[in-house]
Amino acid sequence: MDNIVDALSSAYKEFVAAAANVLEAKELSVAQKTAATDAALENFKQRWELFRVACDQAEEFVESVKQRIGSECLVDEATGSLAGKSGQAATTGLPPISAVRLEQMSKAVRWLVIELQHGGTGGSSAHAHPSVPFDARFPEDAGQ
């Protein structure tokens, strides 16, 4: 994470310095188009693109961390492992499920989302993926 922050900070400083160079070159050329102003503008464009790339990378990192934290919280809640932490009791009233079961449900939802994004109806996701069909019932109810 430190590397991402350092890269973003460095890209920002270079971008601001390039902007200052453009202003300085324009001032020195008395608002005339010169090779110096063209070079300063080109450098500014390059620094802008590098800054945008650094911002995109930082945003991707933040999104991946958010997803990982969300997934961990979901697994903790679903498996009941929060009940043992800090003396908290499970407040959902639902019986805990196994992490494997949660992963199966998560994959089923992802496949449905992908299918819906591609114009599918959502009813044929079991055929789109060759794995075992998803059963939404709790394991203790599935045999009944």
UniProtKB/TrEMBL annotation:
InterPro entries: MED32. One of its GO terms (cellular component) is mediator complex. Coiled coil: none annotated. Signal peptide: none annotated. GO terms for biological process: cold acclimation; leaf senescence; regulation of DNA-templated transcription; root development. It comes from the Eukaryota. Residues 121-144 are annotated as: Disordered. This is Mediator of RNA polymerase II transcription subunit 32. It comes from Citrus sinensis (Sweet orange).
